[in-house]
Amino acid sequence: MVGLSHKSAPIAVRERVALSGDALRDAVAGLRAMEEVSEAMVVSTCNRVEAYVVASAPEAARRFFLDRAAEAAGHLYESHGHEAIRHLFRVAASLDSMVLGEQQILGQVKEAYGVASAAQAAGAFMSRLCNRAFATAKRVRNETEIGRGASSVSQVAVELVQKIFGDLKGRAILLVGAGKMGALSAKALGELGADRVLVTNRSFEKGLQLAQQVGGQAQPWEQLTQLLTVADVVLVSTGAPSYVITRDLAVLAMRGRKQRSMCFIDVAVPRNVDPACGDLPNVYAYDIDDLQKVVQETRQARAEEAIRAEAIVEAEMMAFTRERETRAALPVLASLRQRAEAIARAEAERTLSLVGGKLDEKGRKSVEAMAQAIVNKLLHGPTARLKEAAAQGDSSLPGAAAELFGIEEEPQAGRGEKRGAEVVALSEHKR
Amino acid sequence: MSIQVLRLAALLYAGAAAAYVVFFARPRHVRAATIGGALLAVAFLVHAIGIGLGCKEFGGTEFFTQRGSLVLLGWLLAGAYLVMQRLYGLPTVGAFVTPLVLVVLVPTLFGQPGQSEVDPDFIRSRWLLQAHIAVAVLGVALFAIAALVAVMYLLQEREVKGKHFGALFSRLPSLESLDRLNQRLVRAGFLVFTVALLAGTLVASQVWKRAWEWDPQQVRALLVWILYGALVQVRHLGWHGRRFALMTIAGFALLVGSWAALGAFPGATRHGGTYQ
Predict the structure, then answer these.
(1) Of chain A residues 170-209, which have a CB less than 8 A from chain B?
(2) Does A30 or A334 have the greater pLDDT score?
(3) pLDDT tens digits, B152-177
(4) Which residues of A touch B174 (CB under 8 A)?
(5) CB of A264 within 8 Å of any CB in chain B?
(6) Quick check: A259 contacting B, CB < 8 Å?
(7) How far apart are CA A228 and CA A245, in angstroms?
(8) Considering chain A, what is the average pLDDT of its residues?
(9) Cross-chain Cβ contact A261/B28 below 8 Å
(10) Does position B211 have pLDDT exceeding 90, yes or no?
């Protein structure tokens, strides 16, 4: 695996190598077409671009980046074997994300795998690897609380509004002022399905602009009081140095709306909503500190959960590599057993054809059983030792066994995969 | 015989309550809520069999004792909740209602069921009286659930207003849905209670020969009816949320308080007695 991410490279470099859509598919196909590459997948999101390859030489993946942008050279990290597997598992489980525990990354990795299979760049190994990565991510999500809580201010706003109103069907959001935070939160609240987004700003021009941005209707500033009787969620982010929403205004608005609940979210500094508004019945008022406090708590809780998540990733990674290596030893084991059983059967038949006439049904069965038992006993030790050697990454013993017993090795798909994922760790930028 | 069946029902209710509480504590275990719902439905059916057997044993007179009315109340609580969950979801409410069913039912499971002095033939001959009892208890059940939902509302409001976004905050439903559910329950309860009052008045006019007697029971019922009626009306005047929740709880407190007061003075009312 070779790649760069928000941890190693600035956005200027990431955007040079990021790919999507058809360009991504062509790039993956191109990577796969390289001589030393047998399987390939490219994960490309706004925070990371990583190429996963099963290859005889890692240079191929490196070239993939350098061909796109020479300046990527200083920002690439690289890992092999165990390290690469662990990296993919951590990425899918959102342990390597900018916002720990965010949910999109798993979908993005799934998409990357989908693109790779569509481009016929992902083979049997990549398929097993990715499925294990998805399963690991799912385990992490289910067994830890890493995805719990709101991790951004606008997400906290969404959660709050949800706990007050449920969804926003048939309701209106009012955006007061043209601050960036307000617009962001308004967009996030869009997912709750508000019927109308109203925008009002001291300068109507700017209000119009913002309204276009968030898909709302601009309203004149003078109508603020009336607007407050209509809107259920009010996002306030003006540059005003004092309260735009005073307690008196809120009382007036509540009278106008027959005491139906309303929620003020004040993301302005200095504050634009008098905190005393929150003392009125059915009025809920929050300022940026309230929201940020929740974000902090979430981050802390997630960081604690990450420790448990890392343990799951480690366990899954170990299990996966063990399985993979056992699998590599399996062909030798299988042919060894096959051959031994064929010999046992033939010998049993020969014996039975000589003395079978003198034996009853029970006797014949015992002869067959004896031959089988000899095979089992004889192969028990070698089987266990071969599996053990394979699990420890020792590929010399299966080879020796094959030679010793005269088993011919057919060229296997598994051979290439093994070399590509050789267990050497090399990671420049993580240190 | 019927008491054994009721004990089995109580056991099933306990299972349902446990499942609902587990779901409340660990919302990720959605299956717990499903199990709770299934157990509750089975308990409801077993409870129905228990009531049927009880009617055979006592000829319907048991509903004129405190014990009998509790058995009926528990059953209707469970039934009303099952219907409510079908219509509006919100399985978290189950964590509050199912324990209440147990609280209502458990005192009836021990000791000898006391015999009422009412003549079974008298009851059997008056379907209106039977309807009055069933409908009145259903009304009480609906008001009880409404009061629980109001308590949930107040708990959640405290979280939301007080900016504690902790465990309760994430587990309780939204204020809006609790408020709306509360309103629906109060409305339905008021409707049912009105029917019960009309039926009761008719029975009184037949048996007592006068519809209105200033009997303490009648006064009490009228007060409760007026209070909930007012609650249905003030909704239009902007009584939402907190105030509505407080009023719902106050209404139920009046209902239970006056019932306890009447129970403390036996003989104060002719209601539910021998009607002679």
Answers:
(1) none
(2) A30
(3) 999 999 988 888 777 788 889 999 99
(4) 162-166
(5) no
(6) yes
(7) 10
(8) 83
(9) no
(10) no
CB A356 within 8 A of CB A364: yes
Among A309, A168, A318, A316, residue whose Cα is nearest residue A234:
A168
Closest residue in B to A142 (Cα) is: B28
pLDDT, tens digit, 9 for 90 and up, residues B47-95 = 999 888 887 777 666 777 778 888 889 999 999 999 999 998 888 899 9
d(CA B199, CA B201): 5
Contact call for B174 and A165, based on CB within 8 A:
yes
Query: B191: which 2 tokens?
Result: 């409707």
Tokens 């796109």 map to which residue?
Answer: A68
| Three-state secondary structure call for residue B190 | helix
Beta bridge partners of B7: none
Specify the residue for token string 């109203």: A198
Among A224, A231, A233, A229, smallest CA distance to A192 is for A233
Question: What share of residues in chain A are helix, strand, coil (percent, to 5)?
Answer: 60, 10, 25
Residues B226, B218: Cα–Cα separation, whole Å: 12
Q: Are B95 and B27 in contact (CB under 8 A)?
A: no
* The residue to which tokens 């009787």 are assigned: A229
pTM: 0.72
Is the ipTM higher than 0.85? The answer is no
Of B33, B34, B189, B2, nearest to B105 (Cα)?
A: B2
Look up residue B231 and give its two tokens: 């609650």
Amino acid letter, A206: K
Sign of the C-alpha dihedral, residues B50, B54, B55, B60? negative
Sheet containing A233-236, strands listed edge to edge, beginning at the edge strand earlier in sequence: A217-219, A196-200, A172-176, A233-236, A262-266, A283-287
The structure tokens listed for A222 are: 């003078």
CA distance A164 to A284: 9
